[in-house]
Amino acid sequence: MAGMEEMNLNKSIFYFDDESGCLDVFECFFGDEYQVRTSTSLAEAHRMLSEHPADIIISDQIMPEIKGTVFLRDVARRWPESYRVLLTGGAMLGNVLPEINGSFVHQFMAKPWLYQDMQQA
User: Fold this and answer.
1) Is the CB of residue 107 less than 8 Å from the CB of residue 2?
2) Which domain holds residue 40?
3) The pTM is what?
């Protein structure tokens, strides 16, 4: 999340991941600083973003319902002003690079992410 240090407390973050534990930890770490919303379901993610778009949208790559790259491509089309982050295992990074044309993912982060890395990103 490059530039996150420049964002103020009124910024919102939406995190989509099928692992609810990751979402809970993220909300615990960043919920006091940002408006954090999370979802483990694709339908819920679309509904939540339609009702309240987010400044920063984070998505895991490997999920049962959809790949993160596909989700973020749709997000970029529907909410182009959002800052979009893809989480992927380090070994997977080379596999997702060909899928991305450079315009719908602003930043990659390794999963599992560390608090310090997410905070400084």
Assistant:
1) yes
2) 10-120
3) 0.84
